[in-house]
Amino acid sequence: MTMTEINEEKRLAAERSLDYVRDGMCLGLGSGSTAAIMLELLGQRVRSGLRVRGVPTSETSRQLAELAGIPMVSLDEVFRLDLTIDGADEVDPQFNLLKGGGGALLREKIVASLSRRVVIIVDSQKQVPHLGAFPLPVEVVPFAWQPLAQRLGDLGATPILRPSREGPPFVTDERNYILDCAFGRIDDPAALAARLDAMPGVVDHGLFVGLADTVIVGRGQTTQVMERK
Question: Among 84, 100, 90, which Cα is nearest to 52's?
Answer without folding.
Answer: 84
